[in-house]
Here is the input.
Amino acid sequence: SPTKSYLIGHSKQPHVSQAFQLCLAKRPGEELYDMKTDQWQIKNLAADSDHATIKTKLRKRLEKYLAETNDPRIHGKNPFDSYPLRYGLKKPLVPRKENTAPSTGK
Here is the structure.
């Protein structure tokens, strides 16, 4: 897209740097946002010691869910890190099927 191309091409410029980081940079390992005061999820609070208790509680909840669902990430394996990146594709990697929704009989 023209916007993505612009952000990549101008990522070092001060007026573009923050937008590039928010839109295209690799995400940090942990993110925590206050949805009441930061609905756009701009200020990551994960490293803020004031939020350590809730972060620990949420991490335990996530780890429990990952274990219950046998998610490979609970064992330190992340299949998403090994997916090949596809920039500038003109068509999807997997062809889309036309209307795969079941018929409602209407």
Summary: The chain has a mean pLDDT of 84. The helical segments are 2-9, 14-23, 52-68.
